[in-house]
Amino acid sequence: MKHDQDVEPRLRRRVTADLPDAYRVFRRSLFDYLHRIGQVDAQTAAEPPIEEAWVRQRSWMEHLAATAAEDWVAEGPDGRIIGWAQSVEREGLLELTLFFVDPTVQSRGTGRALLERAFPRGRGSARAIVATQDPRALGLYLGFDVQYSTTSVDLLGRPSPVSVETDLVIDPVAPGYEAAAETAIVGIERELLGHGRAEDVRFLLRDRPAWLARRDGRVVGMAFGASGTDTGPIGALDPGDLPALLATVESEAAQRGLEEIAFTIPMVNAIALAHVLGRRFRIDPFYTFILSDDDRMQLDRWVHTEPVFIL
């Protein structure tokens, strides 16, 4: 007779009603990882702050769910969701957005089975994952046609007004001009990342302030400001223009009286890192790896979208 822990989980496509329970698996798994690397204590890992996080991130979860390429859950023998894997596809790039297995059932094959469905080998003209440093997950990811690109770090600080000398004209995206801004921002993304993300840009334009940077009338950069502590993405065709864009975001956040903002910066982006560290922002110990098979990405002139569900 098989015990419950020996019964193979049932894998199925996620339905709308699953989203809150799938999110709980995500948070439990994340805080178990944070405990293993010493960032939270055992009590916090056992009882992570799920409901308040859901309030902050619900709109993101619903956006990604509505635009997912693949979205799968694993059910235990009691019908409880014990795993979740999701990907999006943007202009040929397949990106794994969420991949979590309940800590009580990890290392039993559930994760691999989910990954094979949500991030199948051979799909996508390009592939990418924003990964934690969890060695078990990394061991799986590296078998799914991606390689290491860079490490990204979170930098947090209290915003204050800052001015950077520049010849850019940096204008906020005004109400009623979102469609034109979307076109311009997607164009910047295609140049810097190799793909555009119209669905995500549209969502971000509703979520946070945005600016376009022009030189001689041509759009050469863009920036999204703070929603809570979250900022980004920020990108510039010339990495030397990044400090002016970062300063715009920080100054606007200071004007609104925000106590803290965060930038997630690829470590190959030396100019952005130097600017933000010079502003006395501190590096958070939670690092992420960018895994991809796409050599078109110019991450030396890119600051990630926060939270980092997507590049």
Structure description:
The protein has helices at residues 19-36, 42-46, 50-66, 110-118, 135-141, 178-193, 198-207, 242-255, 270-278; strands spanning 10-13, 68-75, 81-90, 93-101, 126-131, 147-157, 169-172, 210-215, 218-224, 234-236, 261-266, 282-292, 302-303. It is an alpha+beta fold and 311 residues long. The chain folds into two domains: 4-145, 3-Layer(aba) Sandwich (Aminopeptidase), CATH 3.40.630; 156-283, Gcn5-related N-acetyltransferase (GNAT) (Aminopeptidase), CATH 3.40.630. α1 (19-36) packs across α3 (50-66) and α6 (178-193) packs across α7. The longest helix is centred in the first third of the chain and has 18 residues, at 19-36. The chain is globular, with a radius of gyration of 20 Å. The protein starts with 9 loop residues before the first strand and ends in an 8-residue tail after the last strand. The model has no long low-confidence stretch (mean pLDDT 95).
Number of helices: 9
Uncertain stretches of 5 or more adjacent residues: none
C-alpha geometry: globular
Radius of gyration based on Cα positions: 20 Å
Number of strands: 13
How would you describe this structure in keywords?
alpha+beta; five-stranded antiparallel β-sheet; 2 domains; Aminopeptidase; 13 strands; 9 helices; 311 residues; globular
Provide a compact summary of the structure:
By secondary structure, the protein is of the alpha+beta class. Helices cover 34% and strands 28% of the residues. Strand 2 and strand 3 form a beta hairpin.
